[in-house]
Amino acid sequence: MPAQSHASFQLKLLPLAILATCSYSQPSFSAENSTDITTMSPIVVTGTRFEQNSFDLPIAIDVVNQEDIQAGQLQMTLSESLIRIPGITAQNRTQSAQDPQISSRGFGSRSSFGVRGVRVYVDGIPLTMPDGQGQPGVVDLSAIRSIEVLRGPFSALYGNSSGGVIQLFTENAPKTPEVGATVMFGSYNTTRQILEAAGDADGVEYLLNFSNFESDGYRDNSESDKQQATAKFKFNISADTKLTTLVNWFDQKAQDPIGLDRARAFNSSTRESVVPAAIFANTSVKRDHAQIGFNLEHAFNENNKISLIPYVGTRSNAQILTTTPTAITRATTNARLSEIEREFYGMDARWDNNGALGKMPYNISLGLTYGKQTDDRLDTNILQNGNPVNVLNRREENIASNFDQYVQAKLGITDSVDIHAGARHTKVKLEVNDGLLTLNGNNSGSVEYQKTTPVIGAIWKVTPTLNLYTNFGKGFETPTFIEAAFDSVAMGVASRPNLSLDAAESNNFEVGLKSFIADNTQLNLTLFRITTKNEIITNQTIAGRSTFINANDTKRTGAELSVDSDFNYGISTYFSYSLLNAKFDSDFGTIQSGNRIPGTYRSQIYGEVAWKYDALGFNVALEGRHNSKVYVNDRNVDTAPSYTIFNVRAGFEQSLANWSFREYVRVENLFAKEYIGSVRVNDGNALFFEPGADRNYLVGLSARYKF
Length: 707
Prior knowledge:
22-stranded antiparallel β-barrel, Maltoporin, Chain A, mainly beta, 707 residues
């Protein structure tokens, strides 16, 4: 790091270091009181695969609880819940045709389709396919009780990712059966209905959830509807054996407003519009998804347990894209239909053991994972100069598989020092079988990637209320089929797959502090440095198709801070701050060393002040969010400016006999700030900008009956 930038980085970290140091000056606590204090930290399983207090782990991990997921929220995208987590960028695209932009420490920021660079799970079942592409929209957030968000080196123990792990956990069935219903309505003719039933019938715990969503959307050509269902059954076969079955299904249709050029995006009268080609081509998507997974757990004794998690599913996706997005008349507009029919399955098998080596307690997990996806892909030109056509330009089978082995362990060296370590060997294979030989020959081929990624960390429990930790690990990220689709788009037609891409490899170093200040405030601070070779970046985008290439070196340095406090009289506050300096660390073509990685925000701030008045069942909260400016392409020739917005939510809760009721209202963008909600990285037609919504509201009513 050059001396000047190094000094600048140190200065920006100085306020955080001062705040962290203040934790040393707090009064000491008795052992009895410290036990009560540390229970404030949530119990987590992501990162270690054992239930453990997050305060005692040498990793950066945060939990979003059910109240923060559902209170005053539409519960349609993960971006609603994850904006509060430091180190995570979760941008609301104000449209449903694409998944929200979610990245961790800059990994995944370039993704235009789905989530990549971050692995996503629900109840241990992967929502990320073997090629590294994830679809978090599979899960209905109204059925989720918590979300665990892991960043840093230990995410490598979950496979083909470099940025982190997001794991969602569905609600547990209550002991007393209950049914519930929720209705929401809001701006842009948005409506949502939810029906729920849960309980215990003859020893079988069950959870059933169905929802319907409809909206015209903030911008033109962004109408959408989505139906989702979740079913969970837990069979307590014996005291030692349990089987959980989870079924997820959804069906969705959504128009795609795509991006805007600068002139339209920054004009108050046109920021809600779309480019003419989106209307002429009817850019849109229709998708459905169904999967079932099982989790069989058997405890041989108090020290040994096995878990088997098989899953299987199908997914279809039909997307209309314009290949002439800058066309201004129907007569010059072209479009194509991209279709995917996917079948996937896999399994995770794990043995957990815990005990003691002399006086040193330990736990260890050994596991195997296998996954396979088979995509039948068709790409058809459906509009040529404004006229309907039916010309096939791509027909192929894409097969991705992974076979991984991993080991992870913790050893308590002393009462105050724990060592965590592990390793994962990952093998990913991408295979293309070309079924359209008449266009430009046989494009069949395959490529295989293998890597062992070790990680090690340690935590020092300095006092009952202060822990320091450090860790180091290697990361591994293979190309997805989206990135390996084409080796050239210069002619604007389908070409051979790009199977020459290398996997990106990274070194990830992290140090952190976790501290309780008094008995009502928890502070977490993490500093990190990540160097990556062969970062996969966009090479060229023409006519709606993109090629990708390996850059040389990139570097990410930064800090993450969160402060969570509960005060008297029902008042609570939460604050998070993210500093990310994500840059290219060497020249590469037209990209200069020092250019920022596009789609990454140098600073992000989230703050919340909430008040509950239990006597009336009333709650209210004010939220604030600030994002710095963001570059839109690798050459850093344009930016979306910084913005600060505020949201407010309020509600009442009542109980009457077996009934409970909730009413709530949410107002987003309280002061009607005009801002860019997300950017389309490296868009070849300079349609970089997706404007955020104006002031908008949501009203919800729910009722629940307990038998």
